[in-house]
Design goal:
The chain is of the alpha/beta class and 161 residues long. The protein has one domain: Purple Acid Phosphatase, chain A, domain 2. The chain is 16% helix and 32% strand. The protein contains three helices and ten strands. The strands form two sheets. The chain has a five-stranded mixed beta sheet, with helices on one face. A five-stranded mixed beta sheet has the order 4-5-6-8-7, with helices on one face. A hairpin with a 2-residue loop joins strand 7 and strand 8.
Amino acid sequence: MKILVVSDTHRYQGNLYELFEELDDIDYVIHCGDVEGCEDEIESVCEVPFVAVAGNNDFCSFLPRERVLEFEGHKIFVTHGHMYNVSSGLWRIIDEAKDRGCDVALFGHTHRPTYSTDGELQIMNPGSISLPRQASGNPTYAILELEPNKPAHIELHEMTI
């Protein structure tokens, strides 16, 4: 199973829609928050199942603040990250994901791509597909590949503009 992971679109979906055109082998899309009310529009354009969580800018949203998804024998914790203070460190989100028995934790909020591991837990922020804040200034996203009885495989990607 191949999953596109994005975050922090903030009502600027152009790069995301471009990815939908380029990536024809995606099975699922996960948005890690700050979709700002555009989740229905994104879902209508997306040709595969789509889920999102609420971020700190998703005011009055009916989206859940976090989700635990299960695919191919993997448990994936998805949250925006602001409630776990990810800007100051990852230990809170790591503890929460482990407490929930997850082997992957996905988050956003910082607009900077990051990847790390803590034991068997893989932690990843895809950065922002719309408003990146890392040095390169290029939009980023991730591909999460899952197979039964194999560790999750995560790749971060930069779009060149």
